[in-house]
Amino acid sequence: MTQSDQYNFAYLDEQTKRMIRRALLKALAVPGYQVPFASREMPMPYGWGTGGVQVSAAVLTPEDRLKVIDQGADDTTNAVSIRKFFEKTARVETTGHTVEATVIQTRHRIPEEPLGEGQILVYQVPIPEPLRFLEPRETETRKMHALEEYGLMHVKLYEDIARHGEIATAYAYPVKVEGRYVMDPSPIPKFDNPKMEMAAIQLFGAGREQRIYAVPPYSRVESLDFEDHPFCASKADHPCALCGALDSYLDEVIMDDDGGRMFVCSDTDYCAARQAAGHLGAMAASDGQEERR
Amino acid sequence: MDDVTNQALAGGFQDAPCEAARAFRAILDAMARPGRIHPVTGVRPPAPLSVAAGTVLLVLADGTTPVHLAGACDTPQLRQWLTFHTGAPIVRREEAAFAVGRWAELMPLESYRIGVPDYPDRSATLIVELDALADTGARLTGPGIRTEHRLDLPETSALRANAALFPLGVDFIFTAGGRLAALPRTTCVEDA
């Protein structure tokens, strides 16, 4: 029973959770379509994942194990504070390990480890409307989605090619879901786009913009491209300096004032697991101790 | 208190935040993986409503969601129970966000809200009471389904007509006893 000196389970009141839950079900029924919802004030500023937090609060059960990542890392401010928020308000277990988590809230990455059927990935979304920077009026973009009028997006990608010789969009690369709605995958690197065809449920929450959208498991998610300029999921062309991984997305870390730099896995759990399994990169600690986590 | 009032007050969640959260996860997973059957518990609605249908309504309905009680579901006991626990207005099918009843009583589908092109989410969700749920019968494919799922459905032609309206259309939650399965408008339904 809920007592007066405690938070309601997962912070939000039941009326709010019902409203979000109804939006989530309609979002799954119309994949990629942005469902408006009455986003609440949360005890953190907009831009800190209030959309993702509200979606997580609406889907969490007491039995869940929550993982929160910020650009792939479990140990950065945003991830730590959201994890603590749910430890306090929902008293759920938390974890840093992707495989152990049942709900993963993420800011701008998809974990390297493939997600399974028992998992839900909740994205924090800043600007949910992929057409917003091409057409600022909500009334117009809504009509464009209704009419499936996405020519403007292809013009933008074409102008990229005309100007730079290739599609220069490197993150928040627009996708088309199940051949119908063009969707912003949130600012994940385009390296992560192909992973969006996954076994887990993907839910997207934009708190400031008051939108919820979703991609059901095994849905078709195509990155927009042209026949003569096919989509390419690129990453920095280096191995991870700590774990030697060649297949993971890398962060560039500036080491000193003389241009020294290293490339390390953005997914800290993936990197740590590889190091623990004995994979060491060029700059790994020689005694085999984990330096980063 | 008389018996009718007593019945209206009873049968809700004992611990609403946690029980509703667990039930919603089942509904969410059902809607994400059409045809997959999930158990739900926590609510004891008055007859003839099933445990699963009652649970869905208490998890999702409130004062902002008009509910239509179709056919034999429209009893004074059920009206009182739903009003007490959710505050949802009981309305005609044309205005409903949720409609509950047996398949024949819920028909025809044309009378429900299917959303508008700008807002396809503004459509009804039908809670269809069945005698039993079985993962045999009609072949389901589409988003949320890896290869195919099977679900014993009361009819397939009306569901196909509904799917053809995509992105508009209604969504379904099939209930029997303490179990449910969902069928969003995206699912392609073929006879077995």
TrEMBL record, chain A:
Keyword Iron applies: yes
Tagged with keyword Transferase: no
A single GO BP: organic phosphonate catabolic process
Organism from which the protein derives: Rhodovulum bhavnagarense
Name listed for the protein in its UniProt record: Alpha-D-ribose 1-methylphosphonate 5-phosphate C-P lyase
Catalytic reaction list: alpha-D-ribose 1-methylphosphonate 5-phosphate + AH2 + S-adenosyl-L-methionine = alpha-D-ribose 1,2-cyclic phosphate 5-phosphate + methane + 5'-deoxyadenosine + L-methionine + A + H(+)
Pfam families assigned to the protein according to its UniProt record, in alphabetical order: PhnJ
Keywords tagged on the record: 4Fe-4S, Iron, Iron-sulfur, Lyase, Metal-binding, S-adenosyl-L-methionine
Automatic annotation (TrEMBL), chain B:
One Gene Ontology biological process: organic phosphonate metabolic process
Protein name, as recorded: Alpha-D-ribose 1-methylphosphonate 5-triphosphate synthase subunit PhnH
InterPro entries: PhnH-like_sp (IPR038058), Phosphonate_metab_PhnH (IPR008772)
Pfam families assigned to the protein according to its UniProt record, in alphabetical order: PhnH
Source species of the chain: Rhodovulum bhavnagarense
